[in-house]
């Protein structure tokens, strides 16, 4: 279906600007194009812009050019500093998007950054949702992400058709920053879960058990999880090609430990896993998938692959 046909069949579809075309952003923006949206994108790498154009999107030469005529601006960048860099300043989103636009930040950042962004945007007549996601690269490609949203109900309602083209579980969690708080909790659970799986893998292998058989039966019971389903092959094959990099999980563990400290919540196990993630990064494994926590357990156990 050409963009022209898509537009004529959906005359009220919002024009979308997409900023940040990385591991997550590229497949997510392509899913919107497949759903019939006009997407204009900007990112720092030319090959990612070429990929967007090949998928039927429009490559822009700057943030200002990308957002100028957009009804909805979606951002997907690594962390709070990048969100601030693309949002603020004369060349940023807030100065160049039109009044009345909806800015949806799908990055995983600190809740406070989301609150501050919403406040700054309000002064420009721009509405904001924080809408971080869970599901990793596979979830982005398959459009089955969980999307946790913070912001106003009316803005959420307007954005819902867009979210439905990107994910499966879409929930408004509360006011600005709430999506980021829930995402931080998500990252805590995922990291602890991966660590537990990694410890089980080393224990099973050192015991001489058939690892594939063991993981299959474990995943069928109470020990089963989405983490084990998604990461089982990573463990079995020692394939740590990044779906979600240790560097980013390190950033997220910093967010959750800091946010928990601010509200007075104790994270005793989470704090230990945060240190294990940090040590893996310090050993040069930051670019690997977070299932590479297995490597840290192997080192501690005197086993190596």
Automatic annotation (TrEMBL):
GO MF: 2-hydroxy-3-oxopropionate reductase activity
Domain of life from the UniProt record: Bacteria
Primary enzyme class: oxidoreductase
Annotated 3-hydroxyisobutyrate dehydrogenase-like NAD-binding domain residues: 177-296
Domain called 6-phosphogluconate dehydrogenase NADP-binding: residue spans: 16-174
Record-listed E.C. numbers: 1.1.1.60
Family that this chain belongs to: Belongs to the HIBADH-related family.
NCBIfam families named in the record: tartro_sem_red
Name of the featured protein: 2-hydroxy-3-oxopropionate reductase
Organism annotation: Streptomyces nigra
């Amino acid at each position: 279906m050409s963009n022209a046909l898509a537009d004529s069949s959906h005359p009220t579809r919002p024009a979308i600007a997409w900023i940040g075309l990385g591991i997550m952003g590229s497949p997510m923006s392509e899913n919107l194009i497949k759903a019939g949206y006009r997407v204009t994108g900007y990112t720092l790498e030319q090959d990612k812009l070429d990929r967007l154009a090949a998928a039927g999107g429009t490559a822009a030469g700057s943030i200002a050019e990308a957002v100028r005529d957009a009804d909805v601006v979606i951002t997907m960048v690594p962390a709070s500093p990048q969100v601030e860099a693309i949002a603020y300043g004369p060349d940023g989103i807030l100065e160049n998007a039109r009044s009345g636009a909806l800015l949806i930040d799908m990055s995983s950042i600190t809740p406070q950054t989301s609150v501050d962004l919403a406040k700054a945007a309000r002064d420009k007549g721009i509405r904001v949702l924080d809408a971080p996601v869970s599901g990793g690269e596979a979830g982005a490609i398959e459009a089955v992400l969980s999307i946790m949203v913070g912001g106003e109900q009316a803005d959420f309602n307007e954005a819902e058709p867009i979210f439905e083209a990107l994910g499966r579980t879409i929930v408004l969690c509360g006011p600005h920053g709430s999506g980021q708080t829930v995402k931080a909790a998500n990252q805590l659970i995922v990291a602890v879960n991966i660590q537990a799986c990694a410890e089980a893998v080393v224990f099973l292998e050192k015991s001489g058990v058939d690892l594939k058989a063991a993981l299959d039966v474990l995943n069928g019971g109470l020990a089963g999880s989405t983490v084990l389903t998604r990461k089982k092959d990573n463990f079995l094959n020692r394939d740590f090609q990044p779906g979600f990099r240790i560097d980013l999980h390190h950033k997220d563990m910093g967010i959750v430990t800091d946010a928990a400290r601010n509200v007075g919540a104790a994270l005793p196990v989470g704090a230990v896993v945060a240190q294990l993630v940090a040590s893996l990064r310090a050993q040069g494994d930051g670019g690997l998938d977070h299932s590479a926590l297995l490597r840290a357990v192997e080192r501690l156990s005197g086993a190596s692959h």
